Protein backbone atom coordinates (compact mmCIF):
# COMPACT_ATOMS: atom_id res chain seq x y z
CA UNK A 1 0.00 0.00 0.00
CA UNK A 2 1.21 3.37 -0.96
CA UNK A 3 0.85 6.42 1.13
CA UNK A 4 -0.93 8.33 -1.68
CA UNK A 5 -3.85 5.92 -1.61
CA UNK A 6 -4.16 6.57 2.10
CA UNK A 7 -4.41 10.34 1.86
CA UNK A 8 -6.70 10.42 -1.25
CA UNK A 9 -9.83 12.40 -0.38
CA UNK A 10 -8.31 13.90 2.73
CA UNK A 11 -8.43 17.66 3.09
CA UNK A 12 -5.76 19.15 5.20
CA UNK A 13 -6.57 22.66 6.25
CA UNK A 14 -4.52 24.95 8.45
CA UNK A 15 -5.74 25.02 12.06
CA UNK A 16 -7.17 28.21 13.20
CA UNK A 17 -5.65 30.09 16.11
CA UNK A 18 -7.27 28.94 19.39
CA UNK A 19 -9.78 31.16 20.98
CA UNK A 20 -8.30 32.57 24.25
CA UNK A 21 -10.74 33.33 27.01
CA UNK A 22 -9.60 35.96 29.50
CA UNK A 23 -11.06 36.75 32.94
CA UNK A 24 -12.62 40.16 32.81
CA UNK A 25 -13.03 42.40 35.86
CA UNK A 26 -16.78 41.85 35.50
CA UNK A 27 -16.32 38.12 36.15
CA UNK A 28 -17.22 37.20 32.49
CA UNK A 29 -15.44 35.40 29.65
CA UNK A 30 -14.71 36.81 26.18
CA UNK A 31 -12.74 35.88 23.12
CA UNK A 32 -10.13 37.86 21.22
CA UNK A 33 -12.67 38.37 18.44
CA UNK A 34 -14.69 40.51 20.81
CA UNK A 35 -11.83 42.97 21.42
CA UNK A 36 -13.01 45.41 18.79
CA UNK A 37 -16.61 45.07 19.91
CA UNK A 38 -15.98 45.83 23.58
CA UNK A 39 -14.01 48.90 22.68
CA UNK A 40 -16.86 50.31 20.62
CA UNK A 41 -20.28 49.09 21.74
CA UNK A 42 -20.88 47.91 25.30
CA UNK A 43 -24.17 46.24 24.29
CA UNK A 44 -22.51 44.18 21.56
CA UNK A 45 -19.69 43.45 24.03
CA UNK A 46 -22.12 41.88 26.53
CA UNK A 47 -23.78 39.82 23.74
CA UNK A 48 -20.38 38.51 22.57
CA UNK A 49 -19.40 37.55 26.07
CA UNK A 50 -22.74 35.74 26.49
CA UNK A 51 -22.18 33.79 23.28
CA UNK A 52 -18.67 32.81 24.34
CA UNK A 53 -19.93 31.54 27.67
CA UNK A 54 -22.77 29.63 25.99
CA UNK A 55 -20.27 28.00 23.66
CA UNK A 56 -18.18 26.91 26.58
CA UNK A 57 -21.24 25.53 28.33
CA UNK A 58 -22.47 23.55 25.28
CA UNK A 59 -19.02 22.24 24.45
CA UNK A 60 -19.05 23.80 21.00
CA UNK A 61 -16.02 25.99 21.66
CA UNK A 62 -12.60 24.98 20.51
CA UNK A 63 -11.17 22.49 22.96
CA UNK A 64 -7.86 24.34 22.99
CA UNK A 65 -9.65 27.40 24.28
CA UNK A 66 -7.89 28.49 27.53
CA UNK A 67 -9.08 30.72 30.30
CA UNK A 68 -6.75 33.29 31.79
CA UNK A 69 -7.25 36.24 34.10
CA UNK A 70 -7.64 39.61 32.52
CA UNK A 71 -5.02 42.26 33.17
CA UNK A 72 -5.53 43.56 36.72
CA UNK A 73 -4.21 47.08 36.16
CA UNK A 74 -2.93 47.19 39.79
CA UNK A 75 -6.12 45.75 41.30
CA UNK A 76 -5.38 43.15 44.08
CA UNK A 77 -6.64 39.66 43.27
CA UNK A 78 -8.79 39.43 46.39
CA UNK A 79 -10.86 42.44 45.20
CA UNK A 80 -11.81 40.56 42.03
CA UNK A 81 -13.93 38.26 44.21
CA UNK A 82 -15.98 41.21 45.47
CA UNK A 83 -17.50 41.94 42.10
CA UNK A 84 -20.94 40.63 42.96
CA UNK A 85 -23.26 42.81 45.07
CA UNK A 86 -23.77 40.03 47.63
CA UNK A 87 -20.05 39.68 48.25
CA UNK A 88 -19.60 43.43 48.46
CA UNK A 89 -22.33 43.66 51.13
CA UNK A 90 -20.82 40.78 53.14
CA UNK A 91 -17.34 42.34 52.98
CA UNK A 92 -18.70 45.72 54.08
CA UNK A 93 -20.47 44.19 57.10
CA UNK A 94 -17.34 42.23 58.11
CA UNK A 95 -15.16 45.35 57.91
CA UNK A 96 -17.69 47.28 59.98
CA UNK A 97 -17.76 44.60 62.68
CA UNK A 98 -13.93 44.41 62.86
CA UNK A 99 -13.66 48.20 63.16
CA UNK A 100 -16.29 48.23 65.93
CA UNK A 101 -14.44 45.54 67.93
CA UNK A 102 -11.12 47.39 67.59
CA UNK A 103 -12.75 50.66 68.69
CA UNK A 104 -14.25 49.00 71.79
CA UNK A 105 -10.94 47.36 72.73
CA UNK A 106 -9.00 50.63 72.39
CA UNK A 107 -11.56 52.49 74.49
CA UNK A 108 -11.53 49.80 77.18
CA UNK A 109 -7.74 49.77 77.35
CA UNK A 110 -7.65 53.53 77.88
CA UNK A 111 -10.37 53.64 80.50
CA UNK A 112 -9.56 50.58 82.61
CA UNK A 113 -6.39 49.00 83.96
CA UNK A 114 -5.71 45.39 84.85
CA UNK A 115 -6.56 46.26 88.44
CA UNK A 116 -10.24 46.52 87.38
CA UNK A 117 -10.39 43.20 85.57
CA UNK A 118 -13.28 41.09 86.88
CA UNK A 119 -11.92 37.64 87.69
CA UNK A 120 -15.25 36.31 88.98
CA UNK A 121 -15.80 34.16 85.91
CA UNK A 122 -12.18 33.08 85.71
CA UNK A 123 -11.66 29.33 86.31
CA UNK A 124 -8.38 28.40 87.99
CA UNK A 125 -6.53 25.26 86.88
CA UNK A 126 -6.86 22.16 88.97
CA UNK A 127 -3.15 22.20 89.81
CA UNK A 128 -2.96 24.35 92.94
CA UNK A 129 0.66 25.28 92.36
CA UNK A 130 -0.10 26.58 88.85
CA UNK A 131 -3.15 28.43 90.16
CA UNK A 132 -1.12 30.17 92.86
CA UNK A 133 1.55 31.24 90.40
CA UNK A 134 -1.06 32.56 87.94
CA UNK A 135 -2.93 34.50 90.63
CA UNK A 136 0.36 35.95 91.89
CA UNK A 137 1.30 37.14 88.39
CA UNK A 138 -2.06 38.92 88.06
CA UNK A 139 -1.90 40.68 91.40
CA UNK A 140 1.76 41.69 91.79
CA UNK A 141 2.47 43.06 88.26
CA UNK A 142 5.70 41.01 88.24
CA UNK A 143 7.28 42.96 91.09
CA UNK A 144 8.62 41.22 94.14
CA UNK A 145 7.12 42.29 97.42
CA UNK A 146 9.51 43.72 99.96
CA UNK A 147 10.08 41.66 103.05
CA UNK A 148 8.65 43.33 106.12
CA UNK A 149 10.54 43.07 109.40
CA UNK A 150 8.90 40.73 111.89
CA UNK A 151 6.71 42.57 114.38
CA UNK A 152 7.82 42.52 117.99
CA UNK A 153 5.63 40.77 120.56
CA UNK A 154 3.67 43.15 122.76
CA UNK A 155 5.28 42.01 126.00
CA UNK A 156 8.71 40.59 126.77
CA UNK A 157 8.47 37.22 128.54
CA UNK A 158 11.30 35.20 130.06
CA UNK A 159 11.97 31.54 130.67
CA UNK A 160 14.56 29.95 132.96
CA UNK A 161 17.39 27.79 131.59
CA UNK A 162 19.98 25.84 133.57
CA UNK A 163 23.48 25.91 132.08
CA UNK A 164 24.83 22.48 131.15
CA UNK A 165 28.36 21.19 131.51
CA UNK A 166 30.89 22.84 129.17
CA UNK A 167 28.19 25.04 127.61
CA UNK A 168 29.16 28.49 126.41
CA UNK A 169 27.06 31.62 126.33
CA UNK A 170 27.38 31.78 122.57
CA UNK A 171 25.99 28.24 122.17
CA UNK A 172 23.06 29.02 124.49
CA UNK A 173 22.25 32.21 122.57
CA UNK A 174 22.22 30.31 119.26
CA UNK A 175 20.03 27.58 120.73
CA UNK A 176 17.30 30.04 121.73
CA UNK A 177 17.70 32.35 118.72
CA UNK A 178 18.66 35.47 120.69
CA UNK A 179 21.75 37.66 120.62
CA UNK A 180 24.55 37.12 123.10
CA UNK A 181 24.50 40.76 124.22
CA UNK A 182 20.80 40.30 125.09
CA UNK A 183 21.69 37.45 127.49
CA UNK A 184 24.62 39.43 128.90
CA UNK A 185 22.50 42.50 129.61
CA UNK A 186 19.41 40.70 130.94
CA UNK A 187 21.49 38.52 133.27
CA UNK A 188 24.04 41.25 134.20
CA UNK A 189 26.97 39.00 133.19
CA UNK A 190 30.35 40.61 133.92
CA UNK A 191 32.53 37.93 132.33
CA UNK A 192 30.97 35.71 129.68
CA UNK A 193 33.99 33.38 129.76
CA UNK A 194 33.33 32.33 133.31
CA UNK A 195 29.71 31.20 133.37
CA UNK A 196 29.33 28.11 135.55
CA UNK A 197 27.46 24.89 134.80
CA UNK A 198 24.37 24.51 136.96
CA UNK A 199 23.74 28.27 137.10
CA UNK A 200 20.46 29.60 135.70
CA UNK A 201 19.89 32.13 132.98
CA UNK A 202 16.83 34.19 132.07
CA UNK A 203 16.01 33.70 128.40
CA UNK A 204 13.90 36.54 126.89
CA UNK A 205 11.31 36.07 124.17
CA UNK A 206 12.74 38.98 122.14
CA UNK A 207 16.11 40.70 121.73
CA UNK A 208 16.98 43.83 123.64
CA UNK A 209 18.92 45.15 126.62
CA UNK A 210 18.17 46.37 130.13
CA UNK A 211 18.20 50.05 131.11
CA UNK A 212 18.24 51.37 134.67
CA UNK A 213 16.20 54.54 135.03
CA UNK A 214 18.21 57.49 136.32
CA UNK A 215 16.84 60.49 138.18
CA UNK A 216 15.06 62.92 135.87
CA UNK A 217 14.55 60.40 133.04
CA UNK A 218 11.15 59.86 131.42
CA UNK A 219 9.73 57.21 129.12
CA UNK A 220 9.75 59.68 126.24
CA UNK A 221 13.40 60.56 126.84
CA UNK A 222 14.43 56.90 127.08
CA UNK A 223 12.50 56.04 123.90
CA UNK A 224 14.23 58.94 122.09
CA UNK A 225 17.62 57.84 123.43
CA UNK A 226 17.26 54.35 121.95
CA UNK A 227 15.33 55.54 118.85
CA UNK A 228 12.23 53.39 119.48
CA UNK A 229 8.52 54.13 119.76
CA UNK A 230 7.31 54.91 123.27
CA UNK A 231 4.39 52.50 122.78
CA UNK A 232 6.84 49.65 122.08
CA UNK A 233 8.60 50.52 125.33
CA UNK A 234 5.31 50.50 127.27
CA UNK A 235 4.14 47.23 125.69
CA UNK A 236 7.45 45.39 126.11
CA UNK A 237 7.47 46.15 129.86
CA UNK A 238 3.68 45.80 130.30
CA UNK A 239 3.50 49.21 131.96
CA UNK A 240 0.17 50.47 133.25
CA UNK A 241 1.45 54.04 133.61
CA UNK A 242 4.05 56.26 131.97
CA UNK A 243 5.28 57.37 135.39
CA UNK A 244 8.58 55.63 136.22
CA UNK A 245 10.75 55.79 139.31
CA UNK A 246 14.57 56.13 139.41
CA UNK A 247 16.26 52.76 139.78
CA UNK A 248 13.57 50.87 137.85
CA UNK A 249 14.86 48.41 135.23
CA UNK A 250 13.29 48.67 131.80
CA UNK A 251 13.71 46.25 128.89
CA UNK A 252 14.52 48.14 125.68
CA UNK A 253 13.28 45.99 122.76
CA UNK A 254 15.67 45.75 119.80
CA UNK A 255 18.45 47.79 121.48
CA UNK A 256 22.08 46.59 121.60
CA UNK A 257 24.91 46.85 124.09
CA UNK A 258 27.62 49.40 123.38
CA UNK A 259 30.71 47.86 121.79
CA UNK A 260 32.85 48.61 124.85
CA UNK A 261 30.35 46.97 127.22
CA UNK A 262 30.11 43.86 125.08
CA UNK A 263 33.87 43.58 124.72
CA UNK A 264 34.31 44.02 128.46
CA UNK A 265 31.91 41.15 129.17
CA UNK A 266 33.59 38.97 126.55
CA UNK A 267 37.05 39.76 127.91
CA UNK A 268 38.12 41.51 124.70
CA UNK A 269 37.79 45.12 125.84
CA UNK A 270 41.56 45.48 125.70
CA UNK A 271 44.39 43.60 124.01
CA UNK A 272 48.07 43.64 124.80
CA UNK A 273 49.88 46.36 122.82
CA UNK A 274 52.78 43.96 122.19
CA UNK A 275 53.68 40.42 123.17
CA UNK A 276 56.70 40.32 125.47
CA UNK A 277 58.15 40.00 128.95
CA UNK A 278 57.00 42.40 131.71
CA UNK A 279 60.07 44.07 133.20
CA UNK A 280 58.17 46.27 135.65
CA UNK A 281 54.61 45.91 137.06
CA UNK A 282 52.01 48.46 138.04
CA UNK A 283 52.50 49.87 141.56
CA UNK A 284 55.34 51.01 143.81
CA UNK A 285 58.91 50.10 142.91
CA UNK A 286 62.48 51.28 143.33
CA UNK A 287 63.46 53.67 140.56
CA UNK A 288 66.16 52.11 138.30
CA UNK A 289 67.75 55.57 138.05
CA UNK A 290 67.62 56.95 141.58
CA UNK A 291 66.91 53.88 143.68
CA UNK A 292 64.11 55.80 145.41
CA UNK A 293 60.74 54.07 145.96
CA UNK A 294 58.30 55.52 143.47
CA UNK A 295 54.85 54.73 142.10
CA UNK A 296 54.89 53.17 138.63
CA UNK A 297 51.55 53.85 136.92
CA UNK A 298 51.77 51.25 134.13
CA UNK A 299 53.42 48.13 132.77
CA UNK A 300 56.84 48.03 131.10
CA UNK A 301 56.67 45.39 128.35
CA UNK A 302 59.93 44.41 126.67
CA UNK A 303 60.03 43.65 122.94
CA UNK A 304 62.19 43.87 119.82
CA UNK A 305 63.10 47.40 118.82
CA UNK A 306 60.95 48.90 116.04
CA UNK A 307 58.28 46.22 116.46
CA UNK A 308 54.69 47.47 116.02
CA UNK A 309 52.86 48.83 119.08
CA UNK A 310 49.09 48.41 118.73
CA UNK A 311 46.04 50.20 120.14
CA UNK A 312 44.67 48.22 123.07
CA UNK A 313 41.08 49.48 122.53
CA UNK A 314 38.97 51.25 119.92
CA UNK A 315 39.46 54.98 120.35
CA UNK A 316 40.68 58.34 119.13
CA UNK A 317 44.11 59.92 119.33
CA UNK A 318 43.94 62.52 122.12
CA UNK A 319 47.58 63.64 122.18
CA UNK A 320 51.02 62.87 120.76
CA UNK A 321 54.42 64.37 121.63
CA UNK A 322 57.69 64.02 123.50
CA UNK A 323 58.21 63.79 127.27
CA UNK A 324 61.51 63.81 129.21
CA UNK A 325 60.28 60.74 131.09
CA UNK A 326 58.24 58.80 128.47
CA UNK A 327 60.07 59.98 125.35
CA UNK A 328 57.84 59.79 122.23
CA UNK A 329 54.34 59.01 123.47
CA UNK A 330 50.74 58.59 122.28
CA UNK A 331 47.57 58.96 124.38
CA UNK A 332 44.27 57.45 123.14
CA UNK A 333 40.79 58.22 124.46
CA UNK A 334 38.18 55.43 124.68
CA UNK A 335 34.57 54.89 125.76
CA UNK A 336 33.45 55.12 129.38
CA UNK A 337 36.19 57.62 130.29
CA UNK A 338 39.14 55.30 129.59
CA UNK A 339 42.52 56.46 128.24
CA UNK A 340 45.65 54.50 127.37
CA UNK A 341 49.28 55.68 127.26
CA UNK A 342 52.06 54.29 125.02
CA UNK A 343 55.58 55.59 125.91
CA UNK A 344 59.23 55.27 124.83
CA UNK A 345 58.32 54.93 121.13
CA UNK A 346 60.97 55.21 118.43
CA UNK A 347 58.37 56.49 115.96
CA UNK A 348 54.82 57.86 116.23
CA UNK A 349 52.46 56.59 113.50
CA UNK A 350 49.25 58.55 114.28
CA UNK A 351 48.01 62.14 114.47
CA UNK A 352 45.75 63.88 117.03
CA UNK A 353 42.04 63.43 116.29
CA UNK A 354 42.55 60.26 114.28
CA UNK A 355 40.10 57.40 114.96
CA UNK A 356 41.70 54.03 115.56
CA UNK A 357 40.31 50.53 115.70
CA UNK A 358 41.54 48.07 118.28
CA UNK A 359 44.80 46.52 117.05
CA UNK A 360 45.80 49.45 114.80
CA UNK A 361 49.41 50.61 114.91
CA UNK A 362 50.22 53.65 117.07
CA UNK A 363 53.99 53.56 116.49
CA UNK A 364 57.21 51.59 116.74
CA UNK A 365 58.69 50.28 119.98
CA UNK A 366 61.86 52.04 121.15
CA UNK A 367 63.88 53.39 124.09
CA UNK A 368 63.34 57.15 124.03
CA UNK A 369 63.09 59.23 127.23
CA UNK A 370 64.17 57.73 130.57
CA UNK A 371 64.59 54.10 129.51
CA UNK A 372 66.91 51.23 130.27
CA UNK A 373 66.25 49.44 126.96
CA UNK A 374 63.67 48.84 124.19
CA UNK A 375 60.23 48.52 125.77
CA UNK A 376 56.80 50.20 125.81
CA UNK A 377 55.35 51.83 128.88
CA UNK A 378 51.63 50.92 128.77
CA UNK A 379 49.35 52.85 131.12
CA UNK A 380 45.54 52.71 131.61
CA UNK A 381 43.54 55.57 133.12
CA UNK A 382 39.83 55.97 133.87
CA UNK A 383 38.66 59.57 134.18
CA UNK A 384 42.24 60.59 134.90
CA UNK A 385 42.92 57.96 137.57
CA UNK A 386 45.57 55.29 136.90
CA UNK A 387 44.32 51.68 136.74
CA UNK A 388 46.13 48.35 136.87
CA UNK A 389 46.34 47.34 133.18
CA UNK A 390 46.30 43.66 134.12
CA UNK A 391 42.73 43.96 135.40
CA UNK A 392 41.38 44.90 131.98
CA UNK A 393 43.81 43.05 129.74
CA UNK A 394 42.03 39.74 130.25
CA UNK A 395 45.01 37.78 131.55
Descriptive tags:
alpha+beta; 395 residues; 3-stranded mixed beta sheet; 12 helices; 24% strand; single chain
What does this structure look like?
The structure is a single chain. The protein is α+β, with helices and mostly antiparallel strands. 29% of the residues lie in helices and 24% in strands. The chain is built from 12 helices and 19 strands. It has helices spanning 3-7, 35-40, 42-58, 77-80, 85-111, 128-140, 169-176, 180-186, 219-226, 230-236, 259-266, 390-393; strands at residues 20-23, 29-30, 66-69, 158-162, 200-204, 208-212, 249-253, 277-280, 283-286, 293-296, 299-302, 308-310, 315-323, 327-333, 338-348, 355-356, 361-365, 375-382, 385-387. Strands 8, 11, 12, 13, 14, 15, 16, 17, 18 and 19 form a 10-stranded antiparallel beta sheet that branches. The protein has a 3-stranded mixed beta sheet with strand order 2-1-3. A hairpin with a 3-residue loop joins strand 13 (315-323) and strand 14 (327-333). The longest helix has 27 residues, at 85-111. The chain is elongated, with a radius of gyration of 52 Å. The chain starts with a helix and ends with a helix. Mean pLDDT is 77; it is low at 1-13, 21-40, 61-72, 112-117 and 137-145.
